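Repro:
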Amino acid sequence: MARAALALEDGTVYCGDSFGAAGTVSGEVCFNTSMTGYQEILTDPSYRGQILTMTTPEMGIYGVNAADIESNALQLSGFVVRHASRTASNFTATGTLGNYLIQAGIIGLTGIDTRALVRRLRMRGAMTGVLSTEVLDPLKLVSLAKSAPSLLGRDLVREVMPTVIGQWQDSLDPWAMPLEQPLEGGVYPKKPTSLSGAPKHVIALDYGMKWNIARHLTNSNCRVTVVPGSATAEEVLHLQPDGVFLSNGPGDPEPLDYAIGTVRNLIGRVPMFGICLGHQLLALACGAKTFKLKFGHRGANQPVLDLNTGKVEITSQNHGFAVDESTLPAELEVTHRNLNDDTIEGLRHRNAVAASVQYHPEAAAGPHDSAYLFERFHQMMS
């Protein structure tokens, strides 16, 4: 195997083996605590501009397949693991993780002490780094890392959002349906029985939307029109929606003036539901501020408390920014909290039909505890 190395802006260098494409990339170095779901993670647009390490030591065991794709490309800058499996032990696999990275042009690093890397990121916070198979001199790599651009202030949404309006057609795979739904003749129902009647027309403002979100909306008896995240409020309303969905997406939300303005002009005119970046945009549109978390929330095991029911949900998360509670306007009410650090995980508008969550109820991969939120959005449009 060829050699590869990762340098952080603080001067730390990790040397190991390459198991992906060749080249040199920079990005924000962060970590994810999920044990599975690496293909969904690799294709999640929210990871744009990031070099991701996994805390679970073994990756690639079950290979890759077409069913686990969450966008039309691998989105992150680089992938770091303790050990990358060279084979795929799964009857659904169509290839190995290493070949998947090579075909997509993504650099992979294996054979380093990922525990040491994660400890450093937890202590120092997420840092800019450079991952390379070409430049292996530690001093040169560190110099490149120190001069690499930060995620702060960058508009990464324009790199991942669609350029044209489209109609979503795909629904959930039967194996991906929430387990609390009853079996009917050995097959999960296409949509909850409580959501019968004519489908609701949802405009999904796509800032880098995971495909499983659109699948959940479709299975919640919605007709989904996917619209570029740069659309204006007038363009959205012209499509005559029953509701507007604000998607997840990458990077810092505060530079996205065009998206914030659209959301602000839609509040009170049409029901809205936001996830992750969409949650932050709703808060910013109402006058709140966001801040950068020290090392972010990324994984499929994040506990969230629903303040209305008192129930705890185990959630899938991927964000490096959060809403600053001290800046919340009076019209926004906190509905969910992260039990690890008490940050805001959900909001509801007191005077308009609008709500949002910071986490990912569509999972992919992850638990199904929060899938009910899609049915709740359907009820908001009724």
